Automatic annotation (TrEMBL):
It comes from the Bacteria. InterPro entries: Nucleotide-diphossugar_trans. It comes from Catalinimonas alkaloidigena. This is Glycosyl transferase family 2.
Amino acid sequence: MKVTGFTYVRNGLTYGYPFLASIKSILPVVDEHIVVVGDSQDGTREAIVALDSPKVRIIDTQWDMQLREGGKIFAQQSNLGLDQITEGWAFHLQADEVLHENDLPALRDHLTYFADRPDVEGLLFPFYHFWGDYHYIRRTRRTHPFEIRAFKTGLGIRSYRDSQGFRKYPSVAAYDAGEKGTKLKVVEIDVPIYHYSYVRDPQLMRKKGNFFHRFWHADQWLKQHAASEQDFDYNDVDLLERFEGSHPAVMADTIRQKNWDFTYDPSRSTMSLKDRLLHQIEQATGKRLFAYRNYERIARRHR
């Protein structure tokens, strides 16, 4: 059984991505890890080279700054890595996503168990979305509770939309023509992804947002929504929960370097009455009603 990881990053140091921790966390699981490195000016590539891992293979790219619709640049970069994988499992871990070392034995077991099951096309991972600092997670309807992160090659799978998920296509031409593709048949496993997208210094978080808006919106939108110079307000959120678990060991240095304070104020909740009601139903039943799912879940498997 071969497992190949793939990810992409550009100016990861400038925007505070824990990409080195992400890469380190997946290396024990994969035979090779493809890192698609965009044209960076901050030492991102050099930092990856300094890891000195024989498993890491860098693909250098230039970002097409004209890809300004729906985050397509991210799908393009993801597909550049995916195209390097020809057999076995493909494992996608984004630059702000990290695996916990305690979950790696179970992950290997799941990958081995389903490798020869033709009815299973991919594995579905639960997410911990950290918010504000390393003590809070966001698990409301405004976040995705699960995503596909491992899938089998040879099925015509491509990144869907902005690379958040994946779908199956009859051909690359069909994908390029804008066909919607087919949802993957997946098994949910109990190996969480630690997602740190909204854990940065508030000034850096605002800087990141101002820059990345251009990959979803045209110039007219950017003019109407002028870049803000204010710090990102982490209390402008619907609902957070206290995280009581441990973080991956590879995140220790990043967590130690935290240089801002965050005090959660639930009285400032932005949750609508409708979402509050649906959230209460979800808490009571374990079911998220009317939720969008970019996959066909056929089973659950626990360690």
